Amino acid sequence: MPTLILSPRYTDDTQALWRAATAAGWQVERLAGWRVPPHLRERRDVVLHVEALFAPMLAEAFGLALSSPPEDWLVRLPAEYRRREIRLATLGEARSLAAPAFVKPPNDKSFPAAVYAGGDLPRDYDDAMTVLVSEIVAWEQEYRCFVLDRRPMTFSIYSRHGEPQQDAGFRSDAAEDDAMRTFVDVVLADPRVDLPRAAVLDVGLIAGRGWACVEQNAAWGAGIYGCDPRSVLEVIRHAVMPRD
Questions:
Q1: 225: left (phi over 0), alpha (psi -120 to 50) or beta
Q2: pLDDT digits (tens, 9 = 90+) for 190-231
Q3: Inter-residue long-range contacts of 158-164, CB under 8 Å, 24+ positions, other chains counted
Q4: Has residue 73 got a pLDDT over 80?
Q5: How far apart are the first and last CA of the chain?
Q6: Does residue 174 contact residue 106 with C-beta atoms inside 8 Å?
Q7: Which residues pair with 29 in a beta bridge?
Q8: Cα 221 to chain center, whole Å?
Q9: For the whole prediction, is pTM greater than 0.85?
Q10: Pick from 76, 100, 165, 186: most CB atoms within 10 A?
């Protein structure tokens, strides 16, 4: 029987996953802190849904390896799935940009992803830190898809014209969903697109350009928005693996 390990932080996501796991007959453990209690260290079928900052420590404690996207995943993605210029750079290089650009850390939220002029980038990070630098585009819609074995298991809109959709109940209409799924199916069928067995693929509609991939996220730490928590569990179950 799987054991779902949740972080100490109570959120809508962790509560939804707790209820879904309990209904499926899983055991659920919410950590009281960031140390793994001795009685949990011998558990074998462990499923993590935790913040990126603490995931490596918890994975080490359980003898697990985390499945995470390569830092250059977006850069290597075929151009027809990006529809914008993106490159890897150091934070020091990004500080010297002549024009504003969208800058983000590749795989964590150490500082907010946003449009920055070079001189406005955070100063309390090392210049050698890797960042993604993208041309500025306008996203009309953005969706999150939980993917298992290159099949979309559940999805949810999460942003419309840059506005979070939680207060709107993550509602989208059938035509929007169909257009998104058509694009996702093409991406997932393309062998040039490198994906782990369990992945979270964010896609969106760029004004004047069409559908594109926003980014790939690690399933073990991704927010679920309006996705079906039961399907999310099936994906995150395969997002960590025994280290050996």
A1: left
A2: 999 999 999 999 999 999 999 999 999 999 999 999 999 999
A3: 158/202, 158/223, 158/225, 158/226, 159/204, 162/138
A4: yes
A5: 20
A6: no
A7: 5
A8: 7
A9: yes
A10: 165
